[in-house]
Amino acid sequence: MVQPVDLLLITWNRREYVEKTLPTIFNDPSDFRLYCWDNGSQDGTADLIASINDPRVVKRQFNSENVGQYKPCMWFFETAASDVLGKVDDDILLPAGWVDRIAPMLRKEPKFGMLGCWIFMPEDWNEKLAQHNIVELSGERVFRCTTVAGQSFLARKEHLLRYSIADEQSYSHGLPINRVQMTLDGLISGNPLPMLYAHNMDDPRSPMNVKTKSGNLGSDAALTARKLKFESAEDYAKWIAADARRRQELPFNTQIEWELLRRDNSFMGKIKRKLLKTFVIK
């Protein structure tokens, strides 16, 4: 018997988004179970999570403070029972049927790593531009990437456990999975085609954006915007669009070369990295 997919939702002071996110999660007819972790929200988000009346919610954890993503993810990996796990963000509107589309692919083909939805804008996707990074495996076409964002993805539990960052001291931020190493070891991660479009409400270009607004970015702006130290929403929006284009435009082998060079701290490695960044990475 095929198990329901287990999904993790981590929340923190995103009531305006969670009010929209939860309906898209539960309106999906896919077979899943939801694990919720609230990071000490003070804006009513925790009340929303507590009020969910749906049997697919199997566990809720209400933490007293914001501990980021590491502890919630480790808790989920240890607690979840399914062979396929995933994570959804509290600011992402998910397309109906995405779980039922991706889970069978992962169960059919163990060489798939992390497969997820496109969390950029639909206009950021250009299949002609991305053609050289599209591969086919087990009859499935996938836009291949070195890393998949942690906002809306599925993967085999065995892969997530194998590539989870065991030492919290070496963890910086975001999803505690060594996604680059997963790719370097030969697993194929990316976006199944036809593309599954998810809507990122924290993209400054979104009409539903309320946190990463125009002007200076505050303490409640998107995590990526804060970690990369963007000073304005406009600059952050331009970076998102450029990142989407880079993923499509840059050949996968060049992306791999870049990742390998990032690990090379020798003198020549630093020279090559600088040259590659100057002439290839736009």
Write up this protein:
By secondary structure, the chain is of the alpha/beta class. 37% of the residues lie in helices and 20% in strands. It is built from eleven helices and eleven strands. The strands form two sheets. A nine-stranded mixed sheet has the order 3-2-1-4-9-6-10-8-7, sandwiched between helices. Helix 1 links the parallel strand 1 and strand 2. The longest helix has 17 residues. The protein is globular, with a radius of gyration of 19 Å. The mean pLDDT is 90.
Q: Can you count the beta strands?
A: 11
Gap between N and C termini, in Å?
48 Å
Estimate the mean pLDDT confidence.
90
Give the overall silhouette.
globular
Q: Helical element count?
A: 11
**Class by SSE composition:** alpha/beta
Radius of gyration: 19 Å
Instruction: Please state how the strands of the largest beta sheet are arranged side by side.
Output: 3-2-1-4-9-6-10-8-7
Question: How much strand content do the residues show?
Answer: 15-25%
H/E order of the elements?
A: EHEHEHEEHEHEEEHHEEHHHH
Biggest sheet: strands, sense, closure? 9 strands, mixed
Unreliable residue runs: none
Q: Portion of residues in helices?
A: 25-40%
